[in-house]
Amino acid sequence: MASEAKEWDNYWTSKTKNRLFKIFRTQIFARAVKYYTDKYFLKEGTFVEAGCGSGQTSIRINKYKRKLIALDISQKALDRAKENKKFDEYILGDITKLPFKDSSIDGLWNLGVMEHFTDEELPDVINEIYRVLKPNGTAIIFWATEITHYKVCLNTYNKFFKKNIQLFPNEPTRLTSKKHASSVMSRTKFKNCKIFYSWRDLFTDIVIVAKK
Known about the structure:
It is a single chain. The protein has helices at about 1-15, 20-40, 75-80, 120-130, 150-160, 180-185; strands at about 45-50, 65-70, 90, 105-110, 135-145, 190-195, 205-210. By secondary structure, the protein is of the alpha/beta class. The protein has a single domain, classed as Vaccinia Virus protein VP39 (Rossmann fold), CATH 3.40.50. It has a seven-stranded mixed sheet with strand order 3-2-1-4-5-7-6, sandwiched between helices. Helix 4 (about 120-130) links the parallel strand 4 (about 105-110) and strand 5 (about 135-145). The mean pLDDT is about 90.
């Protein structure tokens, strides 16, 4: 955990001040997060953003009677997430070992997290999410793809100029299609999944809505 935390501390310290990134998080992703959480989460209960980062993508989420918890492996990220006053609690923690009891959380969401795990790690990580959800609880996962516009452009640039530019820490498992997403989820305990790829986030992520 220490090495991963340090890597993400460095990321949130040095690579996230780009104004375009902030606009995309607050104007595009945040609207998509609001849409899916409004549609698939209950209006009361305890909900966790597991891998909250700066918290910017959740600034538009409706509070209702929900307790909202921000969790991240990076203290630097949590310090920034505290600017989002909709969160009730901020926890330094690891998504692979969530600090919650079995069947204690009504819903969990994240964005830009799952692609940082290897294919071999993913079933255990996703099953850890399953463990903490209450019966009928819902996970909403925004999972980055290889087919998004900026990734295609970056891959082309790197190949043409023989570069290895990365916008984010290592991403071994970007999704390639909805079928790929379904294949990953089929290796987990989740059996009730809806998968979306839409204009709501400008076709940047595949969104998985999984119910326990």
